[in-house]
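OP here, attaching both records as promised.
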Amino acid sequence: MTGHATFDVDSYRVRGRFTLELEPNGDAVLEFSGATLLGGHREDAVVSLSGDTLRVLDRERGRYYEGEEVTRLVASGTGKEGEWTLALRRVLASGCPGVETVGNGESGLSGTGPDGPFTLKVEDGRLAQATWPNPAPEETFRDRLEVRYEWKEGRLELLEALLPTRGWRVRLEAD
């Protein structure tokens, strides 16, 4: 998937171009290059998910982060501790570690995990929507990770992940 990306996290808003490659085993690589609305802040990064390890190569600043370093990097940028590797796996539908119960319904699956309930809705045989527990829980935010997928002719055209209570959004839209 290649196209336009928007990252909105608190007052941090970056737009740019992305390429997302997802392997059958669930590994993924996301390349992103973009800038803030007026171009005052530039980003150029590669995010890699391989097995249970999340890596970030920040090409703009010449830095590399792996594992717990990525967790600290995201926490320093957002002010929130979270299960970011698990969240990315869930957003990319590339594995659902920790699922405890699963039930099959007319429009998809629902179940529970150690962090709470989830639902996966299917339309025309494809994943259309997923709702997961908040990957960065805290008492003041009872948020949920909501992911929307849009397909056209068997090709993923849109992937949008939201934490609506916080107002955080990641939107990847194919060309």
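Record two, same layout:
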Amino acid sequence: MNTNGTNLLAGSVVRTSDQTLWYSCGDWQLSGISDAYPCIPAYILESLFPVDTKINKRIVAFNKSYVKIFGHYGLPLNTHRDVLYTSMEDIIYPISLGRMVFVKKSHILEAKDPKQYRARLLRELEDAEEIYNSLVNLLGVSINDLGISGSVLAIGTPSWRHETDFSIYGRSACGKVFSLIEENRNSGIFSKESIPPYHMPFKYMGKWFDPHFSDVARERFLHGAKIKVLCTLKNMVFNIEDDSNGLFYPSVYIVNDGQKLVSFRSSHRGLYRQGQRVHFTSLSKAEITFFSGEVETVFLVINDEWGEILEKRT
């Protein structure tokens, strides 16, 4: 396996011995896990796809036909847990934080690096260098802060997809880029509308882009921690008091009286804003024991719960 260094960047595409393709969520582990990476399954071989489930999207990678199981095209979470993950017991640990699981390093055949692939895409894809250089200049960051992720990285052939995923690395760059994307939506330079049901993508120079944000130090805040689910809560309303860590995965929002809302649902990234009120019909209450020994009780999204935005607080 080549992970291009000691750390696996979030947004890397991992291929395991069963030929599943995964999106990496960084380089950290919970307590008791020392030989795995946190990943979300992205594509599985079409031959392994549950026959009673509708296929929404296919790709060809490594000369094989794959079916997308991530995001809007994904399988229900209970299918992940009851069907996919039970068939992967040799490859992953029996711990699921939403769709995210810990993939054993011993079963990883390959890891594609988003920053390395960026150089190839800019070199080989027509107009890519011009468009991406224009984009990063507008967003006030360096091209070196950016990596190419998502399906184009999984396929491995530079092309313009229906939208192209890119990752921004580093807290400072992430904050700047997110703010400028919103600013340029309002000014009309980027599309004001996204691609339903997603809120992140934007259109620029005729191409759709889906940004992702990564900060290694922030991603490792759970490294070595233990998570214990205490109970399920019903009909909870939260005031979003701080959204500065909502960009990353898992998303962390400061809510009522300084408590944390920690979400492993990827569609919660960058969704909520300071001043909003959000309603969950259900979610978990959990205790996190950090590596330092500090214990904190948090609200936790690990079962695809959705938080409905009620209105902006006055």
